[in-house]
Design goal:
By secondary structure, the protein is an all-beta fold. 0% of the residues lie in helices and 50% in strands. The protein is built from no helices and six strands. It has a four-stranded antiparallel β-sheet, with no helix packed on it. The termini are close together.
């Protein structure tokens, strides 16, 4: 987190449309969608930036793969 911008990076290979990270999603403490970034596996790596200004306590970060389902991480804020 830098200046209310949360940068997410998923260390996962991108093998075109065969095996890739579909998107990142950021949810607030009540599981409301804050932000999401869809990836084009033919030209992008799974890195995204999200404005989290005004959010407190915790956020849920999801990284969604087309073969392995979803990874979830919890970020505790102030």
């Amino acid at each position: 987190i830098n200046n209310n911008i949360l940068e997410i990076s998923t260390g996962h290979e991108m093998k075109g449309y065969d095996h890739y990270i579909i998107k990142h999603m950021i949810l607030d403490k009540r599981f409301n969608l804050i932000s999401e970034k869809l990836f084009d596996p033919s030209r992008e790596i799974p890195v995204s930036k999200h404005n989290i200004i005004g959010y407190t306590e915790r956020l849920y970060v999801l990284s969604i793969c087309n073969k392995h389902d979803i990874w979830l991480d919890v970020i505790k804020l102030k």
